[in-house]
């Protein structure tokens, strides 16, 4: 079964979320090779984008085959958001998503991200301004269930306003801003939003395995599922979820040799697209993702942090996987709590 966001027809009901400092081009290329149907850039600041900030422009890097691809905007000023959205549409992204979920103190203090959950009037002005600016691709919004109120009523109100302004879909992360990443995502609150609007509702939060996705669909009645941390170091998760949602048997877990090969390919893509220096830094994080739950992973991580060049990182990874004992647990994502 597919998922339709306005004019954008997706082949899968499983979506990979935007992840700051994680969902970069190499991450997406690996994910796509393994069946990711729809992915996002990490969020970009509307202010920085409209000021032509070089660092922000680098976040927009993409490549042939990296489609369909959504871009997500963070901001609090309707006209700045509209101008930034127009830039994204002109650059050919397949959808523009608006961030109403980032819980970080500094962001919220600026009236951006999750702060908009507590300011529905301003949020609606942003929806309207962006919809006026962007006519060719769908505009969507990703929100939390509320700012402090965990009932889901704030998200219901915002979703109704988003629908009234012509947005094509709503993603709901089942936690409030106050909850940050604590506790479990509330799928019943996502269900409230689903019942309140006719546009597609994508549920999000704590989906790491097929049984989580099944529970999310059952409890909330949502139209699609967005996974965040579950995709880190585990690109096999997409086909597993697709199979489960289609009622098919789960594909076999990847072998140790395959896991090694994919991590080494991720490293090669990092060097190709980010350059030697940044790739070396990024591999500290990426190695943690792929080795979560494996024996001796900590020793590897320490060594990778000390490696001066990616050539050394490559050798460390090879040695680590070649020495793994038989019967290691299947891939599991690290539960990173920072956004
Ligand atoms: C490291 C990190 C970076 C994130 N960056 C973004 C972001 O740029 N935009 C966004 O909407 N959500 C962001 N999130 C939130 C996730 O997209 C997702 O909503 C949240 O992690 C819950 O889903 P999960 O339990 O499947 O991870 C981030 C989360 C993490 C852990």
Structure summary:
The protein has two domains: 3-245, TIM Barrel (Alpha-Beta Barrel); 256-322, Putative flavin oxidoreducatase, domain 2 (Non-ribosomal Peptide Synthetase Peptidyl Carrier Protein, Chain A).
Tally of strands? 11
> What distance separates the N and C termini?
31 Å
Give the SSE order as H and E letters.
EEEHEEHHEHEHHEHEHEHEHHHHH
Helical run tally: 14
Small ligands present:
flavin mononucleotide
What does the main sheet amount to?
9 strands, parallel
Low-confidence stretches: none
How many domains make up the coordinates?
Answer: 2
The H-level CATH homologous superfamily of the largest domain, spelled out, is Aldolase class I
Which structural category do the helix and sheet elements fall into?
Answer: alpha/beta
- Percentage of residues assigned to helices: 40-55%
What Rg do the Cα atoms give? 20 Å
Overall average pLDDT: 96
The CATH class designation of the largest domain is Alpha Beta
């Amino acid at each position: 079964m597919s998922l339709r966001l306005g004019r954008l027809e997706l082949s899968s009901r499983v979506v990979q979320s935007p992840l700051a400092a994680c969902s970069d081009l190499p991450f997406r290329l690996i994910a796509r090779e393994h069946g990711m149907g729809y992915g996002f850039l990490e969020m970009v600041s509307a202010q920085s984008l409209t000021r032509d900030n070089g660092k922000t422009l680098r976040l927009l890097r993409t490549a042939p085959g990296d489609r369909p691809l959504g871009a997500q905007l963070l901001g609090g000023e309707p006209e700045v958001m509209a101008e930034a959205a127009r830039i994204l549409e002109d650059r050919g992204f397949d959808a523009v998503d608006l961030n109403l979920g980032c819980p970080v103190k500094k962001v919220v203090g600026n009236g951006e991200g999750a702060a908009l959950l507590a300011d529905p009037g301003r949020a609606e002005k942003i929806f309207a301004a962006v919809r006026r600016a962007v006519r060719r691709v769908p505009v969507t919004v990703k929100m939390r269930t509320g700012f402090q109120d965990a009932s889901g009523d704030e998200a219901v109100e915002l979703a109704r306003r988003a629908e009234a302004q012509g947005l094509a879909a709503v993603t709901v992360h089942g936690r409030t801003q106050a909850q940050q990443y604590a506790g479990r995502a509330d799928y019943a609150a996502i269900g409230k939003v689903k019942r309140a609007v006719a546009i597609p509702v994508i549920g999000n939060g704590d989906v790491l395995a097929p049984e989580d996705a099944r529970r999310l669909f059952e409890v909330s009645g949502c139209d699609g599922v967005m996974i965040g941390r579950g995709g880190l170091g585990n690109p096999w998760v997409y086909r597993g979820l697709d199979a489960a949602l289609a009622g098919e048997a789960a594909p076999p877990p990847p072998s140790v040799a395959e896991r090694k090969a994919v991590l080494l390919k991720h490293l090669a893509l990092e060097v190709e697209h980010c350059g030697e220096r940044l790739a070396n830094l990024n591999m500290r994080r990426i190695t943690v993702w792929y080795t979560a739950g494996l024996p001796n992973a900590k020793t590897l991580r320490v060594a990778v942090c000390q490696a001066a060049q990616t050539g050394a990182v490559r050798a460390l990874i090879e040695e680590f996987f070649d020495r793994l004992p038989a019967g290691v647990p299947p891939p599991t994502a690290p539960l990173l709590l920072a956004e």
